[in-house]
């Protein structure tokens, strides 16, 4: 509380306002960042305990643990970049966010399949199991939110085009009526003279 008050008064940074004014996906990206960090730490601990301490590093189990570490690192770095870009600029590039979201969804799908399967390091219930599934769910919601926003943007563009066509037709009809009225008035005044 003291830190937020200091940041607000000294640097004119309102953290609560910054968070609420950012996109709805900021909380999803933040959750993905946290769950990816948990996944990295759990995987590294499992790798250290089972693979480095006299274990067979060529084993399926160890390879899947390394995969979990790599996916966690990619998820952490990607989430951190998106969160930082959203804090730096509330209009973070949508295409970049969509691409990263789709990439992470695919990676998390493979990660959760290999990590939590019978031969995987996340097979027993624990931090790795839950963080893998939660990361997958977060990446799914990020992807679906980006898709919905893209569809809404396409619909809005189509509505704008239709509205533009309608205005153009209305303007053309108005111009025709005005010209017809002017020519009719011209005939009427000519006939009166």
Automatic annotation (TrEMBL):
Domain of life: Eukaryota
Membrane-crossing residue ranges in chain numbering: 26-46, 66-87, 94-116, 128-147
Keywords assigned: Membrane, Transmembrane, Transmembrane helix
Protein's UniProt keywords contain Transmembrane: yes
Keyword Transmembrane helix among record annotations: yes
Biased composition (Basic residues): 166-179
Record region (Disordered): 166-193
Record-given protein name: Uncharacterized protein
């Amino acid at each position: 509380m003291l830190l937020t008050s200091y940041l607000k008064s000294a640097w004119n940074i309102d953290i609560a306002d910054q968070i609420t004014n950012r996109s709805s996906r900021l909380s999803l990206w933040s959750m993905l960042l946290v769950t990816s960090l948990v996944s990295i730490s759990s995987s590294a601990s499992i790798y250290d305990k089972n693979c480095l301490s006299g274990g067979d590093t060529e084993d399926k189990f160890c390879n899947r643990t390394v995969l979990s570490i790599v996916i966690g690192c990619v998820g952490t770095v990607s989430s951190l970049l998106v969160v930082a870009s959203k804090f730096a600029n509330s209009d973070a590039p949508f295409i970049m966010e969509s691409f990263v979201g789709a990439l992470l969804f695919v990676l998390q799908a493979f990660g959760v399949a290999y990590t939590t399967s019978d031969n995987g390091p996340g097979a027993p219930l624990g931090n790795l199991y839950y963080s893998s599934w939660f990361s997958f769910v977060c990446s799914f919601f990020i992807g679906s939110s980006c898709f919905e926003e893209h569809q809404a943007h396409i619909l809005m563009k189509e509505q704008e085009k239709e509205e533009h066509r309608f205005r153009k037709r209305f303007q053309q009809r108005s111009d025709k009526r005005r010209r017809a009225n002017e020519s009719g008035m011209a005939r009427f005044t000519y006939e009166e003279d």
